[in-house]
Amino acid sequence: MTIIDNDTDLTALPFVVITLDKDTQETEYHGCKSASEVLDFVIDGYSDLDDTEALKARISLIEDSVIPVIAELIYGGYLAENGQKHLEQRDEEILLSRFKDDFEIIDWTHEEIPLIVASTQFSPNTDTPRPTGNVEIIEVDNELAVIRALASKKILNVLENNG
Known about the structure:
By secondary structure, the protein is an alpha/beta fold. It has helices at residues 35-42, 51-81, 89-97, 143-152, and strands at residues 2-3, 15-20, 27-32, 107-108, 115-118, 132-133, 135-138, 158-160. Helix 2 packs parallel to helix 4 (143-152).
């Protein structure tokens, strides 16, 4: 990955990661030749990982970045739906049970906020059926799907050039 100068045609690169330099506050453009190179930008040492470790790293990235953002939205939406400013203990237990490893959601009916889950939690990877409804399943075994999920949640600013 290289920092791109102003004369570079951004459309000539498969991916461009856009960052803000903390010291100069200037926008920097980082050219990436592959999805793996983009993930190496956000996961320290990603390019040195074997396939199994890389999958674990992508799962951790989703769990540590995308899911907390959505959990906050769900928490806020739940309070608003129920006219509350804080959760009652029983409500909190019900809400938090949705984020436990052994949860089973058959249907997610919240209209405004999708349930976001990693594909490894459901069939064909496990016996747990995939939930239905307003659900976004991130296929963590696919590097491009992970990058697109991060970009769609404004966690990673990346341009993808398909041409």
